[in-house]
Amino acid sequence: MRSVKLVSELPNLKAVPCNYYVDNHHKYSSPAIIDTNHDDSLIPIIDFSLLSSKDPHQHSKVIQQLGRACQQWGFFMVVNHGIEESLMKELIGVIKEFFLMGEEDKWRYKGEKMFDPIKYGTSFNYTSKDITTYWRDYLKLSLHPQLHCPDQPNNFREVLGEYGEKSRKVARKLLSGISESLGLEEELMNKSLNLDSSYEVFVANYYPSCPQPELVMGLPPHSDFGLLTFLIQNDVGGLQIQHNGKWININPIPNSILVNTGDHLEIFTNGKYKSVLHRAVVNKMERISIGIANCPAMNATVSPAASPLIQNERFPPLYLPKKYSEYVEIQQTNPLDGKSCLDRIKINSPPLK
Ligand SMILES: O=C(O)CCC(=O)C(=O)O
Ligand SMILES: [Fe+2]
């Protein structure tokens, strides 16, 4: 196994090896229509500090904005979240240091099994049946209920622990706000999905500079599992999201956290807040992105919320109940292909082979 970083550093590499060519069988990959009229200035911005506002008018306004952002976009930028910019920069720095370590040092963390708490690798993941190799190295860690972290670089655990804890508080508050936006009791999601033992995965993506970026893909179109994903990045863009059938480039505003809704929020809300397709393209500059997937507890069974506001005679449940860990297993052992995992548990959808 070779990391893309190593491939990108081969002496005189002018052309990308052909196993990295993106194959166009992915139904959402091609043609890549980039909507340049719709730039990312339209992405909703949520002022996190207003969620705690004592002014009921301000509070209900931000709850409405949050609901609209989830329903119409599935992506929004969170500002005034209270996490220090210096901490986020430090984390990106530590991650960069990790990927710059020697190959042998990194492959020590390869992991053997799907639920191993620390996994370093390249492309999508090593059990995948995907035939394309993606221009991406990754490090995946279990962050919660228990923190797992490589022992190098030295300050990794400390920085990760602090960022993990702070971002968990932000996630919980956003999820309560999202429940409120649906008219649900604030604690309903917390209780039904056992969020005190929420499963959280930390994913660091390293996309080395690429001599022919138009031929490859960093990550193919996919939706995220879990409830909400938090994303931060170095100063290089590459994320694209699908909105009204077109791909839009996203360049988050400095010091914001980009949040997107995941498959399990779609299930819990019975399709009201849908997860959104996104992908990562690469370019001639090295890019680092860091995501945290905030998920239900591993042993929680996820189904549309048991509330007449979510399922009733007019809106019967659209998704089959499934244990969260079983869903992750499907997601991790199949090629990334749009929202095909979610399609498997949709009621009335034809069974997939
Ligand atoms: O690198 C990015 O911007 C996207 C990463 C992503 O979608 C993921 O890790 O699930
Ligand atoms: Fe993603």
UniProtKB/TrEMBL annotation:
Residues 197-296 form the Fe2OG dioxygenase domain. It holds the Pfam family DIOX_N. One of its GO terms (molecular function) is metal ion binding. One of its GO terms (biological process) is coumarin biosynthetic process. PROSITE patterns: FE2OG_OXY. Keywords: Iron, Metal-binding, Oxidoreductase, Vitamin C. Belongs to the iron/ascorbate-dependent oxidoreductase family. This is Fe2OG dioxygenase domain-containing protein. It comes from Solanum commersonii.
